[in-house]
Amino acid sequence: MKYTFDQQYFLSCLEELLSVPSPVGYYEKLNPVLERYAASLGVTVTYDNKSTAYITILGEDTSKTVMVGAHADTIGMMVRAIDGDGKIRMRNLGGVNYANLEGETATVHTRDGREYTGLIACQSHSVHVFSDARTLPRDENTMVLLLDERVSSKSDIHSLGIRNGDYISVEPRFQYTEKGYIKARFIDDKAAVACCLTVIKYLNENNLKPAYTTVFAFPYGEEIGLGGTYLPQGVSEYVALDIGLIGPGLDGNEYSVSICAKDATAPYDYSLTNRLISLAGKAECDYAVDVFMNYGTDANAAMRAGNNIRATAFGMAVYCSHGMERTHIEGIKNTLNLLLAYILDI
After folding, report:
1. pLDDT of 12
2. Between 2.60.120.10, 2.102.10.10, 2.40.50.430, 2.40.30.40, what CATH number should domain 76-170 receive?
3. Which of 7, 117, 120, 206 is the most exposed place for a label (fewest CB within 10 A)?
């Protein structure tokens, strides 16, 4: 059975979630937004000491608890040093690819709540000036943030309240095209968060309960391998809702949902992954099963932390992961269908 979801709700939710900065460990702005969405859906948000947000929905059978994790953190940077001429040096949070950040707008978030925009540039920023402008590697040793302020010294930067350790977020640039393509930074994993909220809305509007008590988790450390390391008591299954990958040797594409059989570290649980594959067929999903390299999820982190769980992962596949990503609304619909099929255990 294929389900029909509120597409406009998903897109509006995604656009707003993308607009709220949440690089690794920076939960200050997004958690209040999650609380607002939860309240509008008639559910509440709770937190652990790591500020992971949880929404718990009691199931028809409360003797079993499953978790769906959609990480709320994105890649980003921190201020690591300030040059004498006022240029800001950055340290990455997660798998930042500086080559595709060149020319992008970023925002510095000071510890006292001030914000300043700037331009991410290579120190050899112009072919008219630097002979190595085309060849210099783009990494944290060569990339700088030029504030959109009249500054020319370290003291000028300090006078703005900016210090080492301040967070830096990147402009998401959300677009939805008339052909159904979604383009933005941080589809990984804000699209999965929006999927969770859209499914909760579907349950609410159709007076449905999950088959088992279901905890939706939104952690802030997936991009550095820490998101799923702590699980609330009683969770026996962890399903990471995260992006799929597109590339040579992979069957996934933007229009289907990708089920991950193995990531960079280990295979996912045999029977639970088989159940996802069976559910994908029952829910009439276009789906692919793939093995990913250079990739991990919160479900993987939960296993490595020694939690007594079965774990698996699936989600919409994207082009250009950790860059300006692209997926398609059909891939979102297939992901939503598989997510609801899993929650209802059809």
Report:
1. 98
2. 2.40.30.40
3. 206
What is the pLDDT, as a whole number, of residue 1? 79
What positions carry a catalytic annotation? 222
Q: Which of 86, 88, 108, 104 is nearest to 96 (CA)?
A: 104
Tokens representing residue 135 in the block: 């060849």
SS3 341: helix
pLDDT tens-digit series, residues 292-311: 999 999 999 999 999 999 99
Q: Per the structure block, which two tokens stand in for 32?
A: 């209040």
pLDDT at site 344: 98
Look-up of token digits 């040059």: 83
Contact indicator for 15, 7 with CB cutoff of 8 Å: no
The residue extents of the domains of the chain are: 7-74+186-344, 76-170
Residues 40-86 pLDDT 10s: 999 999 999 999 999 999 999 999 999 999 999 999 999 999 999 99
pLDDT in tens, 138-148: 999 999 999 99
In Å, the largest CA–CA distance within the chain is 68
The whole model's pTM is what?
Answer: 0.97
Q: Do you find a cis peptide bond into 189, omega within 30 degrees of 0?
A: yes
Please report, as a single letter, which amino acid is at residue 127: V
User: How far is the C-alpha of 56 from the C-alpha of 69, rounded, in Å?
Assistant: 12
100 backbone φψ class: left, alpha, beta (φ>0; ψ -120 to 50): alpha
Residue 10 and residue 194 in contact, taking contact as beta carbons nearer than 8 Å: yes
Q: Which CATH number fits domain 7-74+186-344: 3.40.50.2000, 3.40.630.10, 3.40.630.30, 3.30.360.10?
A: 3.40.630.10
Q: Are 104 and 170 in contact (CB under 8 A)?
A: yes
